[in-house]
Structure prediction request, 829 residues.
Amino acid sequence: MIALLIVAFAVILLIQVPKLIKKKYWRELLVYSVLMTLAFVMCLLYALHVDVPNPVKNTQYYIKELFPFSYK
Amino acid sequence: MKLEKGIITNTQLMFLIISFMEFMVLAINFVYPISKESTWIAILVAYALVILIALGYTAIAKKYPGKNLVEINDIALGPFIGKIFSALYIWFFFEYLIHFSYYFNSFWITYIMTETPRIVFVVFLMAVCAMAVKDGIETIARCSVIFAILVGTMVISIVVAQISKMELSHFLPILDMTPKVFIQSVHIILTIPFCDIVVFLMILPYTDKNTQIRKPVLLAISLSTALMFICVLASTAVLGVRMGTSTSGTFAATREIEIAAILARVDVLIAITLLITIFIKITVFYYATVLGLAQMLKLRSYKPLIVPIGLIACAISANLYPSDMEQVYCAQYIWPFNASIFEILLPAITLVVIALQSVWKEKGAAE
Amino acid sequence: MRICGRLLKVVVCILLILGFCGCWDSRELNKLAIVMGMGIDRGDDPGTLQFTAQVINVGEIRTAGENGGGGGQGKGYVNFEDTGNTVFSTIRDITNQSSRKLYFAHNQILIFGRSVAEEGVTKYLDFFLRDPETRLNVYILVAQDSARDVLNVESNIENIPAQNIKSMVEEESAFTSQTIAVRLYEFKDSLLVKTKAAVAPIVEISQGSDGNISKINGTAVFKGDKLVGTLNKTEGRGLLWVLGKVKSGIIEARTPQGSLVSMETVRADGKFSSEITDDGKVKVTISIREEGNLGEQEGPENLSDLSEVAYLEQQKNNVIKSEVMAAIRKAQELDADVFGFGESIHHKYPKEWAAMEDNWDELFQQIEVEVKVDAKLRLTGRISVPAVPE
Prediction:
């Protein structure tokens, strides 16, 4: 499962990075690398059945704090 | 530097917004358990409110023609606060992206293919949407013309097919609920299907007649609300009491269709409708996220950002909620408040600031 | 001269190719008796065995359209029986009764009669492991009484009893997961390891609505190669939870108000790891992950409510835990390590294992077990609340 993930990411990187370098989009490459690392880490966490950081829980928490009134 | 070089006509914009809002046909499943037979009244009230809100959005867009939301925030609110607002908006669009992916995934697994693992449909859908976003707004708008008409036809034909099973007595009792419940249902309808057209503030600058956008937007909202209204009326008339129990009211109503004992089991049409409308919605949110991020970080093109954001979205939305019931709970009780901040509060602040600025400018010019 | 040499090479090549067709060992289809199922029982004289081979009767196979009356009145299969001292000699003796030689490559199941299982199965397995024609992925089963009777019970859906039993084993392990489906290579692996106990499903004959039917009921536990006991359905599923082989199944639980709820398991995964604690005892940690949907509820409660969902998940945890503990207790009672805990210690602590291997029986009785279950309830199906008035 994890091997498949690594292969998939390698393929994606191999296809996309040369295009960026050819066009000399350095700033884009930086942003791309940061985001891809984040994506890789998250997909890895998913493959290992660890709980991926979940925005929903945070949203629920701060909404409950911010809005003392609610429909329930 | 313009990140998006495509131009769409106003008619295409109108169809885009229509196909975007046609997702309502299934989004009101969240509202059915709350305002059971009176959902149609809630829709009318919400429609009146959203027209006002849409006027606010178009006012913001008309003040700065040719500039998308991120640029407007930078100019109107100053570089620092503008960046914060833009970041909040982009995060909001991304949240919608993952929520809708989860909804699609969950719907497909519940009704069509029960044993598939939870990430499969998300990955496939995200891949298709990524391809659409790569092609740019023009392609999306062109597709949406066909989709809008297709979905409209399907919904109308399903409604017509259900005529034989409708009973007017299913509408009574009307408004048999406390005001609090009614307000909640109006709030939900307002935030989930209606007000996410705030995302179009990212797309409005790319139309060919930048200043005459009020007409297509309002027309689109009216047309899709009319379609949705007919659909809700039909489902209520067919199901009546059973509305609140089903996990998907429109689906349940469509299962009842049986014409001459040959044409039955047309509920797969609803699944296809869901597929098409979710595709448009996710593509638009995906596009807005990627474009906004590229704009904020002053990149030369948004295309490299498509794949990473898609992958992150896949990883998060596969396990977004531990169970489907939690998503329903969140949609009914938590999301209206969360969304109101981004859909109503932030644009309102922007609008107030713009108004104040123009007042100050007039004062300065007068002096 | 050169052309002659070339021609010679071509001729030699053609002759070689002709030789590889396999003419020497050719066996025509109409000289084969294709065996679908085999059964071994104890023979009447001590030390002999009775062998039953179920062969397809190709001419009489009934298709679905001709079921019941009309067409060929014969059965789709023929059972050949013979008695002898060793398996191989018995099989060859069957050519005295059969017009064709038995062909084993399509064999589906191998059933041991209870008497033979209690005696020890190794001596009967050797032929099936050695012969090139038999395959290692046949299913092993133990018959409640005699294998011969089981192979004679006809089913209404399938033409051939052996096919019927094979499909039942596969369906059972896939959809209710209360008995383990064991193939010959898995059985052999368990036999090769000194401390692991082999298991096999039990097939019994019971009274159906018209005539006898065969049913899969329970799991047989072997110590060494002798049958020592059985696991019932709950314990059988407990074993499958630990091994991670549950594919689907129904878990019943009660809501806080006392009504019954059945939940379907869609996906399950189980792993265990063992370690040796400081005072020399063995501690096994079993972690099971499970996902399921709500299938059916008896009562009027709204089970989509989040607190109810959490309660049902906790109930699922309890049910799974109790099934696993029941399986472990029965295994300890029978003194048979069906799970493979010993092997996992062997893999992790090879040096200490040498000392522990011989008294594994006592150590097995005293293992500490910790079961961690993570069960989730994902969907509720088409409706969220039942059809009751509010």
Summary: The helical segments of chain A are 2-23, 26-47, 55-66.
